[in-house]
Amino acid sequence: MFPKEPVGKYLIQVCHNISCALLGADSLIGYLEEKLGIKKGETTEDDMFTLISVECLGGCTAAPMMQINDKFYENLTREKVDKILEDLRNKA
Ligand code: FES
Fold first, then answer.
1. CATH code of residue 33
2. Number of domains observed in the structure of the chain
3. What kind and span of H or E run contains 36?
4. Given ligand 1 and candidates 13, 19, 28, 75, which is best to mutate, with the most ligand atoms within 8 Å of its CB?
5. Does 22 reside within a domain?
6. Tens of pLDDT along 8-54?
7. Ligand 1 centre and the CA of 1: distance in Å?
8. What is the domain extent for residue 34?
9. Going edge to edge, which strands form the sheet with 49-54?
10. Which of 27, 29, 46, 64 is the most buried (most CB within 10 A)?
């Protein structure tokens, strides 16, 4: 739970455990990789986003889900991911 390497301003932790996996976590991770232009475990060049996948975060009833810093984002779709990333970029 404690990164050993520096991470971006926003640490995106996508759950890859069973409930989320059954509801598209792999596809979601692939979409985030494509959107951010990085692979899992990497940080964007502007140091805004680090993408990792993690074990169950306890949000199984709202799978697929991810945590960004200390906030949960649930029942994710590609459209929701687009909006979340856009909102975070606009906050910067
Ligand atoms: S399996 Fe994803 S939050 Fe539990």
1. 3.40.30.10
2. 1
3. helix 25-36
4. 19
5. yes
6. 999 999 999 999 999 999 999 999 999 999 999 999 999 999 999 99
7. 16
8. 13-76
9. 49-54, 10-15, 66-68, 71-73
10. 64
